[in-house]
Amino acid sequence: MSKNNAVNLFIIDQSGSMNPLKQATEESYQGLIQKIKQECIELPELHQYLNTWVFGGNTVNEKQMLCKVSHETLNDDFSLQCNGSTPLFDAIGKSCLDLESRLKSLEMTPENTLINVALFTDGEENSSQNFRQAEVKRIITRLKSDGWVFNYYGTDLSVEDMQESLSFDKGMIMQKSAKGFQEAFQHHAKNSYNEKLEWLKAVEEKKRGGNGH
């Protein structure tokens, strides 16, 4: 059986305004990782990977380096250090280009790998230094042509706004509250699982001679 991969890339806001939502975000993230671990049992034919970045102030940091997930391994401890402004463009650009480079070195291709990106934020771009809006949109558009899926979970812009400005096309607008963030993580857990099921089905149909007909 050929190797099928799913990469879960999370980009999470830790700017100062996220402080009231810190605990809810941390707990929701940990719950999402537990869900992915469970998926490893339910979908043993799918090799799952995790890569998590956080951003706030003038920094974009890799919180969890790209690693393989299993139901027995991976520490899901996660804490945010909320402060500063919102370098949203830098976070998206840096994390996506870094992951793209790593996937190439691991020989993960559009044919054998699904990449699902989820951005969680309570604000709008206001402090990026290295990437501009147009450049980030070009990066996302190019990666989508290779099958990457981009999800926006935010409080200040609609999914339609993000589709126009950055080419994100899935996700939801959420309330700026603990409950709102909890619901957003739950929404992503359900949708990303369905994406994986559909992708696996398409891979199997292609193996059988195309389109299941």
Q: What keyword list fits this structure?
A:
Rossmann fold; alpha/beta
CATH class: Alpha Beta
What's the count of strands?
6
CATH fold naming? Rossmann fold
CATH architecture: 3-Layer(aba) Sandwich
Briefly summarize what is shown.
With 213 residues, this protein is α/β, with parallel strands linked by helices. Helix content is 42%, strand content 24%. The longest helix has 30 residues, at 178-207.
Characterize the structure shown.
- The chain is an alpha/beta fold.
- The protein is 42% helix and 24% strand.
- It is built from five helices and six strands; from the N terminus they run E-H-E-E-H-E-H-E-H-E-H.
- The protein has a six-stranded mixed beta sheet with strand order 3-2-1-4-5-6, with helices on both faces.
- Helix 1 (22-42) links the parallel strand 1 and strand 2 (46-56).
- The longest helix is centred in the C-terminal third of the chain and has 30 residues, at 178-207.
- The mean pLDDT is 93.
Q: Which helices and strands occur, and which strands form pairs?
A:
Elements: E1 4-13, H1 22-42, E2 46-56, E3 59-69, H2 88-105, E4 113-121, H3 133-144, E5 149-154, H4 159-166, E6 170-173, H5 178-207
Parallel strand pairs: 1-2, 1-4, 4-5, 5-6
Antiparallel strand pairs: 2-3
